[in-house]
Amino acid sequence: MLRVNEIFPTIQGEACWTGMPATFIRLQGCPVGCSWCDTKHTWPEGHERKKVSIDELLKKVDPAPTWAEMSPDKVVTVVSDYQPRHFVITGGEPLAQNIWILTAKLQTLGTVQVETSGTYPVHVAPGTWVTVSPKLNMGGGLTVLDQALNDADEIKMPVTGQHDIDNLVALLDGRKPKSVWLQPVSQGVEATALCVQACLEHRWRLSIQTHKYVGVR
Question: How much is the average pLDDT of 129-145?
Answer without folding.
Answer: 91
